[in-house]
Specification:
Elements: H1 3-29, H2 32-35, H3 41-67, H4 69-74, H5 77-99, H6 109-134
Helix pairs in contact: 1-3, 1-6, 5-6
Length: 137
């Protein structure tokens, strides 16, 4: 068992749940009700369902990590597989930060700070889970 790695995983698990604060603000800050009104009902529903699946995935990543940090730090095959999936999830999210055109929405200092903090968290999540998944036995 690696207590430092276990602590790092617990912090990562908790911080993933904190990312949900930003997720909860998105529909309001981006005015989804008005912006998505031009879509058909099916497309609007699908948009919400996809968003819900992402939120549920992040909740699962955070809770599984918090509740199983010791086992994940232990490094068995299932733990490594889970950590690899989470690393891929956040690793794929990271380049989207450069693709999304968010500047028009970052109208205050705290929104800009939050955006950069999220980017840093995505880097940290990717690095932590990739390390746990790929570290030597």
């Amino acid at each position: 068992m690696n207590p430092t790695l276990e602590t790092l995983l617990r912090v990562a698990g908790g911080l993933q749940l904190c990312v949900l604060i930003a997720s909860a603000l998105v529909p309001f800050r981006l005015n989804w009700r008005e912006e998505l009104a031009c879509l058909s009902p099916l497309h609007r529903q699908m948009y919400w369902v996809y968003g819900g699946y992402v939120v549920l995935s992040i909740v699962a990543f955070g809770l599984i990590t918090l509740l199983n940090a010791e086992q994940l730090a232990g490094g068995d095959f299932l733990a490594r597989s889970f950590c690899l999936y989470v690393a891929i999830f956040w690793g794929l999210r990271l380049p989207l930060q450069t693709v999304f055109d968010v500047k028009v929405h970052l109208t205050t200092w705290w929104l800009k700070l939050g955006y950069h903090a999220l980017t840093l968290l995505f880097v940290c999540f990717t690095a932590i889970y990739a390390y746990v998944a790929l570290r030597p036995a």
